Amino acid sequence: MRKKSMQQQLIDTARALVAPGKGILAADESTGTITKRLDSIGVESTEANRQAYRDLLFTTEGAEAFVSGVILFEETLFQSGLDGTPFTDLLTGKGVIPGIKVDKGAKPLAGSPDEKITEGLDGLRERLADYAKAGARFAKWRAVITIGDGIPTDYCIDTNAHALARYAALCQEAGIVPIVEPEVLMDGPHDIHRCEAVTERTLARVFDELLAQQVLLEGMLLKPNMVISGTECPQQAGVDEVAATTLRCLRRHVPAAVPGIVFLSGGQSDELATRHLNAMNQHGDAPWTLSFSYGRALQAPALAAWSGKSDNVPAAQQAYYRRARCNGAAARGQYTDAMEQDAA
């Protein structure tokens, strides 16, 4: 049998990550972020507690019916489950693809300190080789675009777009599918129209850079924000308007060659993120698969139910399974209010 080309392997992995009715669990919180989440339930952020929490998520029976891949933090990639099985083997054994967050976080942008640039390109080629050996088959890099008075600047969008494309090219060189995440933040008083304009500017530059740096579009995924009202906007757009506006924006700037768009939840409530995804899929005419890559919106009920107690693991797993099931249905456009009531 002829060995698959690296390009074909990338395409196959990207397509598997957006298999019908499946999406991605983002369990890639940095140590600082997971510490805040554990603090919120009164649990100390030790390596053992972080391991135990990730273990309960990854061992949830049946979740693989709705979760195609899991984005891991570097610590977790090299950890084992509570039974001693390496997490990458545990996930792979369930048919779930392991991934890895590779950026080093957003830092103040030189010359424009109210904006951010994501760092982590130095040494990335070598790190990617190590991650691939450890079992990672896809990766994620997040860029942050803030809406405010006079921002985002072209400078900020350009530098982040260049870094996203450089990361994506290095990933594909290593045989790893890149998830490209340009997040326009929802913080602020701006309305949905301002969000749409900024998201359009951002996506246009990102895809210009991806093409310039010869990234194989069929072997990547896009993880964008939904086009949504700012958190402080007095007039919040409804579910149907968010769905229609987001789809219009994406159709204008995302080539049909990209196999899938896996949305971030971006601070939305668990239920609202699901409703928005479902509404987009009910349109039924997108050229890409529309799915999810949620962190908090998949995990929050499980984290609250667990509260750091081993006796609560079954309840926490049930809460995670329910949210995964709801979002799997939304990825098909089949989510209903009755499902949410069942989940309650």
UniProtKB/TrEMBL annotation:
Keywords: Glycolysis, Lyase
Pfam family, one: Glycolytic
Involved pathway(s): Carbohydrate degradation; glycolysis; D-glyceraldehyde 3-phosphate and glycerone phosphate from D-glucose: step 4/4
Any one GO molecular-function label of the UniProt entry: fructose-bisphosphate aldolase activity
Keyword 4Fe-4S: no
Catalytic activity: beta-D-fructose 1,6-bisphosphate = D-glyceraldehyde 3-phosphate + dihydroxyacetone phosphate
Domain of life: Bacteria
Enzyme class: lyase
Keyword Lyase among UniProt keywords: yes
InterPro entries according to UniProt: Aldolase_I_AS (IPR029768), Aldolase_TIM (IPR013785), FBA_I (IPR000741)
UniProt family annotation: Belongs to the class I fructose-bisphosphate aldolase family.
Protein name: Fructose-bisphosphate aldolase
